[in-house]
Specification:
The chain is of the alpha/beta class. The chain has a single domain (8-240), classed as Rossmann fold, CATH 3.40.50.150. The chain has helices spanning 8-23, 27-31, 35-48, 65-72, 85-94, 133-142, 159-170, 182-191, 210-218, 225-231, and strands at residues 55-59, 77-82, 100-104, 117-122, 143-154, 196-202, 234-240. Strands 3-2-1-4-5-7-6 form a seven-stranded mixed beta sheet, with helices on both faces. Helix 6 links the parallel strand 4 and strand 5. It starts with 7 loop residues before the first helix and ends with a strand. The mean pLDDT is 93. The structure holds S-adenosylmethionine. Residues 17, 31-32, 38, 60-62, 65-66, 82-84, 87, 106-108, 123-125, 128 line the site of S-adenosylmethionine.
Length: 243
């Protein structure tokens, strides 16, 4: 059953992100992650990342963590886009480099022509949107043929999240974050014209359980589909546009 999303949900997130951008100076806090959570996400992405050829777009770049990671890995040019101007200012300040560009904008109305980016990524955004259809349409539109689209979400199938969501509904609490179904997001990518869309599970333990985090990565828990689907806090999807 689709989750009920109140109208103010997106507005609340937008003002929260702007406040994070004004108040904090670290990548993780500007994005609203824990330091260990951001490090785990970045490791998961870098472990899967192959070639960084061509121009990249980071849609919802926050403090620019992935913009800098792509630049370090040799991407030709990287654009960081976010609707939080205070976060963009911090990102720019923290990132010297002339082959990087920062833009204010909404990920659902990207200010670019079609098929201009070699690859695009969009991390940490789906949980703050009421729905993903417009976002997926835009990410696929601006990607060149044979380019990659990377997107993540907070796993709706995670047992912990399912329990939290149930308690929230029983107590009639307003929705805090939107959990997403990895299968549904994959379906949206395929429906928008991608030929491949592979789900990767990302188990993320709280900051105080970093030993468990290391153990789960050593055991490659994320690659055990049965366990990973119900235990992973997050997932990421790597999709490709046809040639
Ligand atoms: C959780 S942070 C993630 C930042 C970074 N991508 C990362 O993964 O560390 C989400 C970012 O997306 C931005 N964002 C959320 N919704 C957006 C939208 N509709 N348009 C543009 N940016 C958006 C927020 O301002 C915030 O900087």
């Amino acid at each position: 059953m689709p989750q009920e999303v109140p109208n103010e949900f997106e507005l609340r997130w937008r003002s929260r992100f702007e406040r994070f951008g004004e108040s904090y100076d670290s990548d993780a806090l500007i994005a609203g992650w824990s330091a260990s959570g951001l490090a785990t996400r970045l490791r998961a992405f870098e472990a899967l990342l192959g070639t960084t050829d061509g121009e990249w777009l980071d849609a919802g770049c926050g403090a620019g963590t992935y913009v800098r990671a792509l630049y370090r890995q040799g991407a030709e040019r990287v654009y960081g886009l976010d609707y939080s101007v205070p976060s963009l200012k911090k990102a720019k300040h923290m990132t010297p480099g002339s082959t990087l560009a920062w833009l204010a904008g909404d990920v659902r109305r990207l200010p670019f022509r079609s098929a201009v980016f070699g690859s695009v990524l969009c991390f940490g955004v789906t949980q703050a949107l009421a729905g993903c259809e417009a976002l997926i349409g835009e990410l696929v539109r601006v990607t060149r043929p044979a380019g990659e689209i990377w997107i993540d979400g907070l796993n709706r199938g995670c047992l912990l999240h399912a329990g939290e969501a149930l308690i929230g509904r029983v107590r009639q609490q307003p929705l805090r974050v939107r959990y997403e179904s990895a299968a549904r997001l994959r379906h949206l990518l395929l429906a928008a014209g991608c030929t491949q869309a592979r789900i990767h599970w990302v188990p993320i333990f709280p900051q105080r359980f970093q030993r468990l985090q290391r153990l789960s990565e050593w055991m490659r828990l994320g690659r055990m589909p049965g366990f990973a689907r119900v235990l992973s806090h997050a997932f990421l999807i790597r999709a490709r546009k046809p040639c």
